[in-house]
Structure formats: C-alpha cells, structure tokens
Specification:
Layout lengths: L1 E3 L5 E3 L6 E3 L11 E3 L2 H10 L6 E3 L2 E11 L2 E8 L7 E6 L4 H16 L1 H6 L6 E3 L2
Parallel strand pairs: 8-9
Antiparallel strand pairs: 1-2, 3-4, 5-6, 6-7, 7-8
Helix pairs in contact: 1-2
C-alpha cells in the first residue's frame, strides 16, 4: 500500500495498524479504542473539542495535542518520562481533509521512530505542512 509522506512523496507503509484511545468522555478513556485513520482521528478530535490528548494503545507514555495558536494549528507530541523532547507539526490556519492524512502519518512516524531517524537534525523538532 502506498501513502504520501510529509513532503507529498510516495512511501510504502511498513508499520502495523495503530489504535488510539477514542473515548468521548472521562469514563471511556483507556477503554474505547479504534484504528488510527485520518477520518476517525478528525471525527474524534472534533467530537471532543480537542480537550483530550491523543493516546495510542500500547504506547502508554505517548501524548499528543492539537493546539490553536496565533499563527495556526499545531500538533505537539511527546513521550513522558524520557527526554521529554516535544515534536511539533505546524498544520496551518485550517485543518483540511488532506492535512488529517499528514497528521496521522506524523503520529505513525513518531511512534515508529522515523521522525528521530529522518529529522533528528532539526534542533527545534518542528516540521511544517506545505
């Protein structure tokens, strides 16, 4: 299966399916999981009004947020308890359908270690969508 990478180039998907904690309220958190797809992630973030951090099944130390700041939306993702390096993805002024694909890819690359491997030279740990 081919997917677009962050630069819009084709890349072969090699990672296993990720599942994210998609509970819509506090009592469902850490109980309800679904496969991480752009459509489901978008629906979940909108339904929860961005109030819950993104958490991935089997990655208990991973947290991610989409935040709105003056210059647009950002995805921030980190692992608690390690070096606490925060990776940032500048999404832009709006989050379109295509940007949800890039957000999902970014999360998958973070979990697999591809971000550190391919973009570790970035001291600010900041990437931006075109």
């Amino acid at each position: 299966m081919e997917k677009k990478n962050l630069n819009g180039q084709n890349s072969v998907a090699t990672s296993a399916t990720l599942y994210f904690d998609c509970g819509l309220n506090s009592s469902e958190r850490h109980i309800v999981y679904d496969d991480l797809t752009p459509e489901k992630l978008s629906t979940w973030f909108k339904a929860t009004k961005y109030r819950f951090p993104l958490q991935i099944m089997g990655q208990d130390d991973l947290l991610g947020w989409i935040l709105k700041e003056e210059d647009g939306y950002f995805l921030r993702i980190l692992r608690r308890g390690q070096d606490n390096t925060v990776w940032n993805l500048r999404i832009g002024k709006s989050i379109t359908k295509n940007r949800w694909y890039a957000i999902t890819k970014f999360v998958g690359d973070y979990v697999s270690g591809s971000l550190d491997e391919n973009y570790g030279w970035s001291k600010s740990h900041m990437l931006a969508l075109a």
